[in-house]
Amino acid sequence: MLCIVWDDSIGVEKLPEQSQAIVIYTGWERHALIGSDIRLSCSFFSWRWTSEDVTFSWTYRPDGSRDSISIFHYTGGVAYVDNKGPFRDRLEFVGNPGRRDGSILLKNLDFNDNGTFTCDAKNPPDIVGRPSSVRLLVFEKVPIQAGVITGAIIGVVLGLLVLIVVIYYLMRFLVARRVFSLSVSKHGKKKKEGSQQRQASSLLSFPHIPSSSTSSTSSFSHTLRHMYTSS
Amino acid sequence: MLLLLLGIILLHVAALVLLFVSTIVSVWTSSETSTSDLWINCTSANGGYHCDPASTGEWIQAVQALMILSIIFSCLSLLLFFIQLFTLQKGGRFFLTGTFQILASLFVMSGAIIYTVMSPDWVPEVSAFGYSYILAWVAFPLALISGLIYVILRKRE
């Protein structure tokens, strides 16, 4: 006989709460002038509500070095700033953990502050996530963004080209119209109807001429000759 | 006549292809560990291959713009050549085509000259000029000759 034994110990096990990935956002690169202040922003996306045990931590790796040091940590509702490292007395917490903002403010920047700042945030039980890094570049003067001057030069030259083409066709059209009006006043004195009708039909074709050929100077003389021979 | 036409078109297309290769591939300087170009600097020092976008100085952007403009003008001149081939009157000259091609060659020349003059700032001493730089300098006389041929050429038949 089969006995089914129901063992309480394998009843309903308490599974650990499912944790989903947390996504952390910082900037990609920040430029700043020497001596200025800069705010490095860090925020995260998580499917859970913001828990009370949310933590933010910032680490800094100078350019050219392989070690990173920890410069900021927020946990249990208290923010701990750097008081021994390169940012002592220059770091301030300006974020709002309740709104998932873990931004810090760096004051009085120097060239030694060039480097990569990494923000790591945890929102228990969402703890699986990749820390995000922002690169800080300190300049004496802020350089022009890549591509601005390139685009400006290309745009100006092409614009000049278009302008020259437009002006050229405008001039041709105006000169042709002036010749048109001159010829109307000249041939209007002749009394032959047939010639006037033929004149009108040949003169009316003037506005189409600018679009036909692209060879410039000979077409003016061509149209003038055409006009005089048809009368 | 047909042979002449083919030769001229071939010359033009050759100059255009050189311009494209020089601008896109752009191995303008190369050394054992790094190549630096108009658009990107790649270095394989410190182990691993590592590329950075080129510095955002004003002059390198000017060189980029001039190279792109020369490509645009050379393409336009090729298009104009075919248009003028069919619409020009007998005995007419391909002035417009020649003008655009000569302008394209001038742009390449200025770009290459600016790069040469500013290269002590950008290129470390150990690097030599790469083949894209040389192609740019070769494209300049080719385009110039092509443009001059267009200006001299007269349309027959």
From TrEMBL, chain A:
It is found in: Membrane. InterPro entries: Ig-like_dom, Ig-like_dom_sf, Ig-like_fold, Ig_V-set, Myelin_P0-rel. Residues 16-135 form the Ig-like domain. GO terms for cellular component: myelin sheath; plasma membrane. The keyword Transmembrane helix applies. Residues 205-219 have a biased composition (Low complexity). It is a single-pass type I membrane protein. PROSITE patterns: IG_LIKE (PS50835). The chain crosses the membrane at residues 148-171. Residues 190-219 are annotated as: Disordered. One of its GO terms (biological process) is myelination. Its main location: membrane. The keyword Membrane applies. Keywords: Disulfide bond, Glycoprotein, Immunoglobulin domain, Membrane, Signal, Transmembrane, Transmembrane helix. Belongs to the myelin P0 protein family. This is Myelin protein zero. It comes from Sparus aurata (Gilthead sea bream). The gene is MPZ.
Automatic annotation (TrEMBL), chain B:
Belongs to the PMP-22/EMP/MP20 family. The keyword Membrane applies. The chain crosses the membrane at residues 62-82, 94-118, 130-153. It is a multi-pass membrane protein. One of its GO terms (cellular component) is plasma membrane. InterPro entries: PMP-22/EMP/MP20-like, PMP22/EMP/MP20/Claudin, PMP22_EMP_MP20. Gene3D superfamilies: 1.20.140.150. It comes from the Eukaryota. It comes from Sparus aurata (Gilthead sea bream). Pfam families: PMP22_Claudin. It is found in: Membrane. Keywords: Membrane, Transmembrane, Transmembrane helix. This is Peripheral myelin protein 22.
